Amino acid sequence: MLTSRRSRLTQVNPYLKMALCVLLIGLTLWLRQSEAMLILVGGLLLLLPMPIRWGWLLYGTVSLGMFTLTSAWLLGDWPKALFSTLRLLSLLLPAPVLVLTTPPADLIRALQRLRLPSFLTLSLMLIWRFLPLMQQELQRLWEANQLRGIDLRRQPGQWFSGLIVPLVFQMVAYADEVTVGLQTRGYSPTAPRSSSKPLRWRWLDTGFGLGAIAWLSLISYWEWGR
Questions:
Q1: From the record, what ranges are coiled-coil (predicted)?
Q2: Which residues touch 18 (CB under 8 Å, ≥6 apart)?
């Protein structure tokens, strides 16, 4: 069931998800009622791709708990602290919903349809591709330091020489490989592009859009309509 839900979100039109994320972030800044904010955050949590790693879930829960406790201590008001936590979640969650449920190829097609400059589209595509590579490289460097008897969690002074410097050199090496690959394949930013799978509006997009409208209407009702 979780896998099918994720696959359905992956098939939704990228433009629709972009527009929804922008609307949600803008709506977050206007909301003042806790009930409306709770409906917004609850909907975002339902849209998150599953399953979520237990480590990330635990880390997020602890971080939010610390944020709530600090806010309550500074503000002296638990309801305001909880509302601040909900607002933080509503600002942080829309982007992962877009990123984790949109294949890179669909995102690039969407950006190309927007008539963005070719260099900007290529830069965004490469940044997108480098993010998982950076995560893998960080994990590899962390394990390499552990094999050498260096625990970076207890020795933050070793982060620069044992983590940051090797990561920078590795990313530069990856950038050189990408440059050589583009040149050997005759890439030209001014050449016309074609797509074997053009983006089209489907019934799934209509259903997702209607559901989003109902969700936003419910939030608006609890905020302004009662």
A1: none
A2: 98, 110
What b-and-e string marks burial along 164-185, b requiring 16 or more CB atoms within 10 Å of the CB?
eebeeebeeebeeeeeeeeeee
Question: Would the CA dihedral through 90, 91, 92, 93 be positive or negative?
Answer: positive
CA dist 110 and 105 (Å) reads 9
Give the least confident one: 34-43, 171-180, 181-190.
Answer: 181-190
Q: How far apart are CA 207 and CA 204, in angstroms?
A: 5
Q: 184: part of which helix (H) or strand (E)?
A: helix 165-184
Count CB neighbours of 140 within 10 A: 13
CA angle 207, 213, 216 (to 5 degrees): 140
SS3 (DSSP) at 27: helix
**Unique residue bearing structure tokens 């791709």:** 49
9 or 209: which carries more pLDDT confidence?
A: 209
2 has a pLDDT exceeding 50: no
Q: Is residue 6 very low, low, confident or very high in pLDDT (cuts 50, 70, 90)?
A: low
pLDDT in tens, 110-138: 777 777 777 777 777 777 777 778 878 88
